[in-house]
Structure formats: C-alpha cells, structure tokens
Specification:
- By secondary structure, the protein is an all-alpha fold.
- Helices cover about 50% and strands about 0% of the residues.
- The chain has three helices and no strands.
- The longest helix is centred in the C-terminal third of the chain and has 19 residues.
C-alpha cells in the first residue's frame, strides 16, 4: 500500500519556508546585501616605476653590448627604480 504525500495548508507551507532574518543591532545597510567600499576589490594604482625599471634594464643590457659606462648608468638606474618603487606610497 502506497501512501500519497499530503499537501500542506497554505499557512503551514508559509511557516516552513525560510524567512529573512532581521539584521543584528548596529548593522548598517551595507552589511545587508550591498557591498561596501572596503570589501570591493581594487586594482593596482598607476605607477611610473615599473616603466623606469624596464628602461633601466634595457639600458643595462645595451651597456653589456656597447660600453661599460652605459652598463654602469643602467645599473644605477635599476637601483633607483627598485628603491623608488619600493618606497612608493599607496
């Protein structure tokens, strides 16, 4: 003998459905579904130092082929670019 599932009345079905919970005290509107600025991912900021470093490396490589003075200038620029990029403020 098979039993057929009984249909629930409208009130009982509504009571079993998950109801949205009220926000805890002190919760702002941002925590209720809207992303806050602090939680949204941001990309890196614009910086000139990676470009300077790339030029300095290219100059140092050119100095290996051409003249030791060009190599020294390229090496100094590499140091300046790395230090400048490392000390850059966000």
């Amino acid at each position: 003998m098979q039993q057929q599932p009984q249909e629930k009345s409208g009130e009982a079905a509504a009571a079993n459905e998950e109801q949205p919970r009220p926000a805890p005290e002190g919760a702002s509107e941002q925590s209720q579904g809207r992303p806050s600025r602090a939680r949204t991912p941001r990309g890196p900021h614009a910086s000139l130092w990676p470009f300077v470093l790339a030029l300095a490396i290219a100059l140092a490589c050119l100095g290996v082929v051409t003249h030791p003075a060009v190599l020294v200038i390229g090496a100094l620029l590499i140091v300046v670019a790395v230090v400048g990029w490392g000390l850059e403020r966000y």
